[in-house]
Amino acid sequence: CARSAAKKQAKAKEAVKEAEEDKPAHVDAMEVDASPPTPAPAATPTPPAPAPAPAAQTKGKGKAKGKGKGVRQGSAPTVEQIVEDPLTQLALQYWSSGAKNKPYDAAIVEQIYNEELEGSANGSGSDGSVRKGRIVMLELGRYLENYLWPNFSTDATNAHLLSIFILINQKFVEGVDAWAAFDDEAKFSLFFEKALELRASPTLTMRQRTVFTVFLINAFQSFGNELVRAECMKVTSLLTWHSVSEGRREAMFNEVPKLRKVWKFLNKKRSAKKKKKGTKAVAGDRPLDAAFFPALVTDFLSALEGLNLGEADASRATITYLERSVELFTDILSQLTTRRFLGVVLEDLRLLVRARRSELYRVSAGKLFHKLLDIHAFYARFEIDDFTGEALGDEVMEVMHYKRMKQLQQIAFRDFGDDLRDFALSNVQRVDTKETLLRHLSPLSTEKLQALCKSVNVPVSEEKELMLESMISVYERRQSQLQLLNKSPLFPDEELLWDPDQVPSSNRISDTCLALPKLNIQFLTFHDYFLRNFNLFRLESTYEIRQSLEDAVKRLQANSTLRGDGVIDVNFGGWARNAVRIQNITVVDVQPPHVGFTVPSKVVAEVKFALPQPNLNLRDQIQREWDSLREHDSVFLLALQPKTQRELNAMTQEQLDALTFPERYGVLSVRGATVASLHDAEGQTLSDPNPNTKPKRAQGSGRTVKLELDPAQYQIDLDNSPEDSEVPSTIPTLNVILKRKAKENNFKSVLETIRDLMNLDVKVPDWLHDVFLGYGDPQAAANTSVISQLDFHDTFVSADHVTQSFPGRDVQFVGEQRSPPYKLSFPEDEKKPIEVTAYVPPPPGPYPQDLPKRNTVPFTPIQVESIKRSMNEGLTLIVGPPGTGKTDVAVQVISNLYHTFPNQRTLIVTHSNQALNQIFEKLAALEIDSRHLLRLGHGATDIISVENADYSKFGRVNFMLRLRLQLLEQVAKLATTLKIPVDVAYTAETSANFFTYHVLSRWEKFLDGAKAAQEANLLNYVAQNFPFTDFFADVDGLFSRSSVAEDLKFATGCWNHISHIFTRLADCRAFELLKSWTDRGNYLLMSQAKIVAMTCTHAALKRRQLLEFGFKYDNIIMEESAQILEIETFIPMLLQNQDPEAPSRLKRVVLIGDHNQLPPVIQNQAIQTYSKLDQSLFTRFIRLGVPYLQLDHQGRARSSIASLYSWRYQNLANLPHVESRAEFQLANPGFLYDYQLINVEDYMGRGEMTPSAFFYQNLGEAEYVVATFMFMRMMGYPAEKITILTSYNGQKHLIRDVINQRCAHNPRYGRPHKVTTVDRYQGQQNDYVLLSLVRTRSVGHIRDVRRLVVAMSRARLGLYVFCRKALFENCYELTPTFSKLRLRPDKLQLVQNETYPGSRKVTDTPATFEVADLTHMGRIVGSAM
Fold first, then answer.
1. Which of 1183, 1062, 1085 is nearest to 520 (CA)?
2. Which residues, at least 6 apart from 1336, have a Cβ–Cβ distance to it below 8 Å?
3. SS3 content of the chain, % helix, strand, coil (to 5)
4. Residue 898 vs residues 903, 1115, 1227: alpha-carbon distances, Å
5. Do the beta carbons of residue 666 and residue 648 sit within 8 Å?
6. Could you tell me which of 621, 918, 1270, 1356 has the fewest CB atoms within 10 Å of its CB?
């Protein structure tokens, strides 16, 4: 199996043409496959693209300083290099675990800092880039945990402190827990005090200040850690106002009187402690705390105003420090707890005004600084009351503005009447702009302007211009952010698409800060929450769009030719299946703006194009792809005009290398649009949205598409065009139309939904409001209304199950009845017993289908507690480790709510269609009437139920119409048996009348006689007088005649069967009155369905429609909530209109997930790392301290396999069946072990490869994995029970390629169930998993423990890990798992003469043989063939 390597590598390189980077299964919430472009199967080849330039090898720039061979700078170290590295040698002597270490030596810290870390500035600058690898070496060697922190004391040097900062910062870069080592509160407080003292050190360089600033940024972003939060809050207290001018401080005290009392109390307490303790600082009231932040701001302003842009190296280091400082100040203003007092400090020191006056703000070198300062300005003037936390709308902000202006005009009239009379007497709107304020205030002398500033508590200065800017910053008319947002285009244009500061390349991780908002555990208001998520979601979508555009543009191979008349012709030398040339574009309709708006309400353009005709094999498929465009799909229009050959020839190589992508490929403009309709060459419409309409056969290759252009962008383009232009000048230049896959293209609808929510006064339950924004008591949202008695319906399978479900509690049964179902009463005093009341449900009908469907899952105590809490009102969090029955718990909660609260409606939301369908399949197996179930969105037809029912909207309508006919047949049968001559079964209405006047009356008469018969014990009464005996003639032995009570009970069951017919028929009546399918479907959604399910993406896309329909619900159950973006978790909670005067209808929010597994997937790693866009609401609630329940018994995997990841969870045990079932007792045929690590050395002299940048492959592992798969197939293992996983997309493509060559076309082998990445396989499982970890130089992103947990928990019966053992076993984060893996041999151990299925027990000791390496495995498979 080790042949054809050269061919394999060639195909691997072909597979990654145009790949920008490799990411761990980056699939966004819309399930987009973001793997690099690869060749499609032979039948549908992808058009060729220009081959990228070979990835430059990063050459080393010398060895690490110190003795020893060292690791080349700038390259990933190999295992051999790590062993020989001088840092490794130092580690072995001083801090390696398990070694006899030398005593602590401060000189070693100094040496390592000076030789390895000095100048790193967390990787910023040229030196920092070179030394980043050295930081990684120290971080992997646990330098912080084993040496720096244990030996930290008050005598620690600056180098010691800075080393700690650098390694903490590195941990944030790598996404691992940075504070795990800090568990001593007193010591950490001392460390933080020393850190604050470091600011005043006169020897600190700008790079060192940057390291310190980045440390502070990370600390202020870590308020989920109690130690860090406590120390950060000490430097943000009211005592910082000692640095604020007395006039401003008094004005604030007058505005918020209670602050004066707090101020006096704190100062009195501080003075008393100083007298008692002398000069010794008291923890929590250190003098340095109050002075630290004002001094930090002063340092920043001094560095900014003293910046010399002429000194390149010095200015670059200073600019980095200044950028990071602005980032820190913005982070502080973006959290209410820190901005409350520090916001006043920043304003009093005029940080924003002085920064905007700086030279850096105006030059190109300060472009990023400019953008960061604009974000800071937004938060500095954010619409919130800093002391109450109340959100201030535009109207309130306008009133406050007029109040300030009125006060200023009054002072101007009173004290400066001669100079400012016109200003004082003018209308506010005429004097509150920057220009008018300057015009009126500039003539004042410096002395008078100082007096005016002092009168209105604006900081006074000797510099007149500074005071003018300060006055303008306070009194200038505020521009509404919401209005600006409403005017902004939703589609990205060419400027945003290629802006490196807002849409960075994915591999730009923490080298510099970015001009992006961040998600953290706290938000100022709902507006702030929506705005951050809106911007980040838009930028993430823009990055994905950019990838699609760049790929298509490269494939089109546009070129320009200059004609003799000076006109430039653009031709295309290539082709792309998703982008074609526009033949003609015309604006056909521009509708006037709506009232209050300045942009057109609608702009329609008509675009004509011809489908590409590459070859006969592809023609039909490409035509189907383009003809699949539907209404509201998004497309992009491009204007391409590359430089002519003459222009290129005139440029130097340096100029060519400096070209950006738009400059290199001639991208002049990019405009987005949505499809209104699509027509073929003969004009027939191809984009009919009705799914029941039979698709038309398109004629010809010409197409005409009507597009709705973005009105805001259209108006911007028109404003920038010549005055006499009727249409924007960009329109005629558009010459390419590009489409994207439907799953990739729903970003616009999501952005519209977020923008709609920003324009509303969002209403959530009171118990959710504060905890959602990150404030208040996190426990207040849980169990807000405890119900004393709960109907658990069929949750318990027996009386013993009830007793076992409440360990440590006394359980008492009320009455003699012991069989389920049960109602449980929970006293407030937990010492009192739980009262269990068994009740008898209504008797079922006489037919098998009338028997109730009962739950058969014996829930564990923690599962029962989760179900109980979820039935109470409020917020419930359930953490479900792999295989612990999260779905079963969710299904039982839904079932209990359905039966206990029949008038309430429940909304089910998941991340994936697969999870949603699993829930529905289990719901269908319980006692839930199928007419009350509704599944919205794609994937509804994939549900496999006992009834083979279609739970989609159209499927449910069909079901109700069929049900109506079936029920009417039953009514007709009943009427016949009762000898009613009239046709009563014509409609649901006539049937209802028949029930009232003929059926119900007979039953009531029968009951009246039954009471007397029961008293007289007339055994034949029921059989002789039951009025519906003939209807049940097909039931043998209807009544026993041995007991009146038993016969009466059976008769009641028969009556329940009949009454159920008419109850369900009443639900069908609306379907008789409503004639259109749309109206029927909407009625089903709005009125009939009590359990509605959808994915989070569908909720975001269809929110407008759901609001228009009047959708209502009371409970929301969200599965996979740890995999859902923050905003996509919140939107489903806002799918119903709320009465502003009434309390929120939402009663329960149940979030089920696992924050220890992978978070939501973000394509752009820079946005993911810097802005934390991958944060889920579930994880944020956990970080905030909201109480949660963790399921504690797994039943998926063998106990041995579960031990590989159970360490990540507290007290995760195994269910009894894991030990008792035969499948877990039997060994895997042909393998000695049920799990094993197989060490794979270099194959053909190579380990990991990167045929394209960040596209990791390992041919040796790929061949070994496929050879093992072939071996398993020859042993008889079913292919569908085998999954091959890898941690990188590049390896996934390589393995698929090997399988295509080795196995795919041989029926003896075939293909495994799936070959995919770990990230994409989250939430799925299989019996046997072959895992390839790929990397041989550095550990890579499997170091993220969440990814490791997912990788280890996908297999049920067998897990075989192929990797470079020496690399992974030394990684600290992986130690709990790899310490178990390495207890077994690292060469594959096989057992001879076994086939699948086997009979060998796991406890047996068979004869085995060892596979030496890949070549040996190849011979084994080859000989068996």
1. 1183
2. 78, 79, 1242, 1247, 1248, 1258, 1364, 1367
3. 50, 10, 40
4. 8, 10, 43
5. no
6. 621
Q: Is the peptide bond before 77 cis (omega within 30 degrees of 0)?
A: no
User: H or E stretch including 572?
Assistant: strand 568-572
Instruction: Decide if 180 contacts 225 (C-beta within 8 A).
Output: no
| One-character DSSP codes across 862-904 | HHHHHHHHHHSBEEEEEE--TTS-HHHHHHHHHHHHHHH-TT-
Tokens coding 971: 């009514």
CB 1366 within 8 A of CB 79: yes
CA distance 984 to 972: 7
pLDDT of residue 1291: 96
CA distances for 904 relative to 470, 873, 1088, 1197, angstroms: 56, 12, 11, 37
* Spatial separation of the C-alpha atoms in residues 136 and 1109, rounded to whole Å: 56
Report the amino acid identity of residue 333: L
Non-local CB neighbours of 28 within 8 Å, separated by 6+ positions: 34, 540, 544, 1160, 1161, 1162, 1163
Distance CA(290)–CA(377), nearest Å, equals: 24
Which positions ≥6 away from 935 have C-beta within 8 Å?
Answer: 916, 917, 920, 943, 951, 952, 1092, 1093, 1094
Q: Are strands 1389-1391 and 1408-1410 parallel, antiparallel or unpaired?
A: antiparallel
Neighbours of 58 (CB within 10 A): 11
- Kindly state the tokens that stand for 1014: 């029961």
Question: φ and ψ at 1163, to 5 degrees?
Answer: -65, -45
Give the whole-angstrom CA distance, residue 851 versus residue 842: 11
Residue whose tokens read 């939402």: 1146
Give the pLDDT band (50/70/90) at residue 29. very low
Exposure string over 895-925, b if 16+ CB within 10 A, otherwise e: bbbbbebeebbbbbbbbbbebbbbbbbbbbe
Q: How far apart are CA 1167 and CA 539, in angstroms?
A: 8
Secondary structure (DSSP) of 483-548: HHHHHS-SS--HHHHT-TTTS--TT--SSS--S-----S--SSHHHHHHHHHHHHHHHHHHHHHHH
Cα 594 → chain centroid? 35
Q: Which residues pair with 1408 in a beta bridge?
A: 1391
- pLDDT tens profile 1294-1340: 999 999 999 988 989 999 999 999 999 998 999 999 999 999 988 88
| R_g of the chain computed on alpha carbons | 36
Nearest 10 degrees: CA dihedral of 513, 519, 524, 528? 90
Calculate the CA dihedral of residues 1360, 1364, 1365, 1371 and round it to 10 degrees: -110
pLDDT at 315 over 80: yes
3-state secondary structure 845-859: CCCHHHCCCCCCCCC
Tokens describing residue 1100: 């975001």
Q: How far apart are CA 994 and CA 356, in angstroms?
A: 82
**DSSP conformation letters of 1037-1091:** T---SS-HHHHHHHHHHHHHHHHHHHHHHHHHHHHHH--SHHHHHHHIIIII-SE
Concatenated DSSP letters for 598-609? SS-SEEEEEEEE
Provide the edge-to-edge strand list for the sheet that holds 906-910: 933-935, 1091-1095, 906-910, 1115-1118, 1148-1153, 874-879, 1188-1190
- Asked whether 1268 and 1332 are in contact (CB, 8 A), the reply is no
Q: Which residues pair with 677 in a beta bridge?
A: 706
* Residue spans of alpha helices (H) in 600-709: 616-627, 645-649, 653-657, 661-665
C-alpha angle 1349-1352-1358 in degrees, rounded to nearest 5: 160
Would you call 716 helix, strand, or coil by DSSP?
Answer: helix
Task: Compute CA distances 300 → 355, 410, 659, whole Å.
Answer: 10, 36, 35
Write the secondary structure of 67-96 as one string of H (helix), E (strand) and C (coil).
Answer: CCCCCCCCCCCCHHHHHHCHHHHHHHHHCC
Closest CA to 329 of 391, 372, 384, 385: 372
